[in-house]
Specification:
This protein is 16% helix and 37% strand. It has 496 residues and is of the alpha+beta class. Among the domains are: 94 residues, PDZ domain (Pdz3 Domain, Roll); 87 residues, Roll (Pdz3 Domain). The longest helix is centred in the middle third of the chain and has 14 residues.
Length: 496
Amino acid sequence: MQSISLKASRLTLALVLAGALGGAGASLVASRMAHANSDTAAPAALVAQQIAPVGAADFAGITERYGPAVVNISVTGDAHASANTDEADASAGPARTDPFFEFFKRFQQGQQPGPVPREAPTRGQGSGFIVSADGIILTNAHVVRNASEVIVKLTDRREFVAKVLGADPKTDVAVLKIEAKNLPSVVLGKPADLRVGEWVLAIGSPFGFENTVTAGVVSAKGRSLPDDSFVPFIQTDVAVNPGNSGGPLFNGRGEVVGINSQIYSHTGGYQGLSFAIPIDMATRIQGQIMAHGKVEHALLGVSIQQVNQSLAESFGLPKPDGALVSTVRKGSAAEKAGLQPGDVILSANGKPIVLSGDLPAYVGLASPGDKVRFEVWRKRASVTLNATLGNANEKPEITASASPQGPGQGKLGLTLRPLQPDEQRALGQAGGLMIEQAGGPSALAGIAPGDVLIAINGAPIQKIEDVHTSLARTDKTVALLIQRGDEQIFVPVKLG
């Protein structure tokens, strides 16, 4: 499953990679002391009272008790290095303002020629934590990726060569083993019991500064990120930086509720948005790795996007809830269950799907073969579909439908024509209409020449008459299913 979001402004999804350190070390930032005159300064006791968090946990006690179970991880190995950098994006010019730019850029990059990757030696650092006294350690998969040697350092300065028992890139969880006994270990908690606004604590090695403690609050739960389909992240405002990857996130009772994994940032450094993998998902991955040496994930086989108010109006939804299906993959569990592009999934086995991220979070915690009953909004009515989840290791192809007809033009501001045979082959489409010109409301929505119109409000477009028929049914907003390259996405277009 793939979660899709459109963003007008650019944000860099930065994995908190410890390998950014190398041998450069860390720099210290000087701070200035602000002086206040005696007649304007508030009493120290009053200031302390104002800034002290109400009901804050005993973080000092948690650190003292469980800090020894947090380890520093040093990695050496080989990785692919490339000359591609974000500096290349700086030359994009006006394209950066295109709401489609960020979404499609990820997929088009794989089609463009570029420098051949080369092997380069890497040295990096990350964090981890001991979950059992016999030396089982959890960390991020990206921390130990391409590692030829992994060294685990404890707070008592002892060092061990660790064996990587397994790593799962889909959830970014890895399991290590060191040969030691009677080690300090953490206590695991329940992420489901976390409340938004609750205080949490992170311990790790940002920029190589071992056993650094930072604290903040839970900002949100069940976050779905554009590049991560399976993980319902815990969002916090805890300061997390390169080197924190793989470290524990504690609740106020001293229980580990997550593994610090990613940040959202314009710069690559911490800017107030940190994301942790829920510990119940991590331990599920750990169990599969230790039992079978591999991990199997459930797969529904759809691409989805968020339902906003405009899309809700287009599909006749009472409110903008659910996960909008933009693509159904051939041979997938979704296709077998009867799911179609334009369906809005409202619940799974009775659990409401309010945000699009709720769906991959639900499937991510399921197993291949699990049966799921979906409530789906289709053609302005609710229907029930039953699916048996597939295996994510099997990658079905994306479906295509429709057949070409003649050119046309309408109140969308689009000039359309049928696809040529070579275009059909290149796009994997047997039909749809090629957009030759885009103006008016469609251009404002980000649609551009070269896009292919596949459906309107979920109804396939096979000829120009289908466009007129669909537009005759609404006078406000329509949802156009657009294909650009290999990807499809619904775009709401206001008709004025």
